[in-house]
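A common beginner's mistake is to predict each chain separately and then try to dock the pieces by hand. The better habit, illustrated here, is to supply every component at once so that their relative placement is modeled jointly.
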Amino acid sequence: MQFSDQARAAKDASRSLATASRAVKDAALHAMADALAAAEEDVLAANARDVSAAEESGAAPALVDRLRLTPARVTAMVDGLRQLAGLPDPVGDVVRGWTNPNGVQVRQLRVPLGVVGIIYEARPNVTADAAGICLKSGNAALLRGSSSALQSNTAVTAALRRGLQAVGVDPDVVQLVAGGREVTKEMMAARGLVDVLIPRGGAGLINAVVTGSQVPVIETGTGNCHLVVDATADQDVALGIMVDAKVRRPSVCNSLETMLVHRDIAAEFLPRALAVLAQHEVTVHGDADVVALDDRVVPATEEDFTEEALSLDLSVAVVDDLDAALAHVRRYSSGHSETIVTGSVRAADRFTAEVDAAAVLVNTSSRFVDGGEFGFGAEIGISTQKLHARGPMGLAEMTSTKYVVVGDGQVRG
Amino acid sequence: MQFSDQARAAKDASRSLATASRAVKDAALHAMADALAAAEEDVLAANARDVSAAEESGAAPALVDRLRLTPARVTAMVDGLRQLAGLPDPVGDVVRGWTNPNGVQVRQLRVPLGVVGIIYEARPNVTADAAGICLKSGNAALLRGSSSALQSNTAVTAALRRGLQAVGVDPDVVQLVAGGREVTKEMMAARGLVDVLIPRGGAGLINAVVTGSQVPVIETGTGNCHLVVDATADQDVALGIMVDAKVRRPSVCNSLETMLVHRDIAAEFLPRALAVLAQHEVTVHGDADVVALDDRVVPATEEDFTEEALSLDLSVAVVDDLDAALAHVRRYSSGHSETIVTGSVRAADRFTAEVDAAAVLVNTSSRFVDGGEFGFGAEIGISTQKLHARGPMGLAEMTSTKYVVVGDGQVRG
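With all components supplied together, the output reads:
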């Protein structure tokens, strides 16, 4: 099918979904879950073909791992859909409302965005997760997965659509968009048919969509996150947060990439920090002050401070004062999550006020910046842009609003 | 100065403005007002040069009128700045907040967007209005006015910057962007320096920015607004709303462009409506049913239903039922403000639920869809897009948010 036909079908189907009750949407989510569970064998077989093809073409092991589905991963997708059914429905929520002096009543209600395009890389579990989040928030989903996962995504989407059909919901609210690179271009040009694009994946993909799209985009995910250890920091707290944010799951966007240590505390803190990092097999890329302390420290390059490592590598620098720390963060931050450990109210206040990021943290770990940890129940991604949504995006962030204005004949005159 | 230098200066200046207290911003607004009032003579002289040049070049009278400043219009600009000083500051407002079970406290605060680019057409009063709204919401403004208003805008901007300097605020938070078309292109490519672009003007300008910009855009203003007169409508109410929405100020975006009349009421209602419209010198462009009723009715073209007239022209059609009315609105609406007059709860509910627009109105005039009428105190425009803000945009809509997360050593583990 042509992309434009798919998009038009999505737009048409999105209209009835927009006014569907929560009961209808929750029934659809359970039916999608049932159908996906029933299709586990098909899905795993399709995935095995994708994985073989990727291995034969010499794909990196990390990519093959992201591509691979297991019975446990399929179960997680099924459970994710059922959990969405248990969440409150944001559609219809009254954001605010008032009555004008002339009696005209104004309410601002949450409504679905309409048609949401998700452009993503290898992970086939995104297919079910994104379809479910879109459905619960009343949006049709156009799912543009990568060609390496085409067989898997086709099998998953077919199952989800069977579930929708089983409960009488137009299956065109969930569609897989297949085809070459030109289809991504068509998606990015589909103003009026696609209401928003959300790219999920590496920095290259996100940048290509953000700069190339005429459809509004929500930028997600790049996290070059800093930890500032202030002169007045509780060192044990700083060490705990450093390990939590760097080591537990280095490949995620809210993990730590650079630690900046105040010179007044460096001589005492850094040897302790380097010892702990060594225990956790973290490679430290340090500035001259840090290199001087320990043979294991690799000299840091400009790239080390600029790029997300997403691995057990940590850039470390000594800063003369809070101003220098703030200047470093301003220069290199991707605007995701920035943390200070400090005992000073003044330093905490300056840091939270002056750092321009989706989340600023004091004396706690950036790993808490997450839709699940925020209690959103589901997350489509973490927005690092300033328009529409910033930070973890749950169901409410997948909606727009509409003013409903009711009178009994009032005119402005 | 090069645009990139201006944008960098704006970005730098925006940082201290972002953390400025309301008292500082209000003092700046009053100082801007004082300086603009003091510069009235200069501003009017500069404007006279723009007006002469426009007249000599054969510009349309409507354009010359939009371009022309008078002492009253300058006073309105000055008063507008002072009124902004009286409004609450959205920056720092807590949108929501909670404490996690582990004691981590999360607050979502309003913060400025950063650097806002306004691209607008002839009206020089936008220069002061937009600068003031940006300043109050903590944003630096890059004002890209039209070349026809360059002298006026230069004089206004110089005055505003003198005011800022007088109270010690970096004047680079208000800058006029001059130069040819290539400068607009630079603005639209300035990702990372400009946080959002807001085009204000005709459909051509808005479309060019919306499709050409890599910087996020807020689309404003196009209003192809409908009035549906249902079978159960109170006819006097319908006539009153029709006149209010069409006649009072036809050039604004929330004015009425097309009226759709239910066939069951058409024979009685339309002759009354046509008589009232004739009294107000409105040219009616009707479908075959309407043309048949009155010699003064011009046959409506597809363009009449598609375009905003912004004049004393009204397209009128008879529809067989509410479904036909909804289908017409769906096809032609620009998603601004759509109205139904009805006595039926069922029809009102269907209309408000199914029509996809920034505002849907029942038994009252679309002219109420306005920042002033909504009590926002100031309005940068009316958004017709779904992301970030939809409908009248006041000061809160000129902000983003930031999560402030505070703990005492908690880690996720």
